[in-house]
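Write out the 3D structure for:
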Amino acid sequence: MSKWADLLDDKPDVDVRVGTIEPAVAATLARLLRDHTATPTECFFLVWEGYADMRADLRKATSIMLMPERRMHVLAGDLADGAEPFEETAGGRSAQWWIPADGVWAVGNDLYGASVYVSGTEELISAILAADDLEAYRASASMQIVAEEWAS
């Protein structure tokens, strides 16, 4: 298995950011996901508390502990809010985990991961795979998925 850096050695102009969903990807996902939930205005987002430039107003949000010992702030809002940066700086990171109140799909990105994972109905996954502006691959429960920072 290769690391992202290994895959990009011959493409120096590609900048893979980890721990965030790139703005264009987040916007496309939000558009596609909206049609696959009855609660697009009631979504929850998780953001790791350790980012230094997080907006001060978000630091007061309720938090939960996820494995492995990562405290995440819980934010709520419209599905489109998932693509909004939570950092003070321009071009900041977006929420790493998204889930609507009806729980019909989930979006996840590890703070050390460059990949974004989406679970949902076959109809949703087919829409994501068909999107021209996303690089998407089907994953299954039988696949071994290794965190990018530990892959070799």
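The helical segments are 4-7, 23-34, 122-130.
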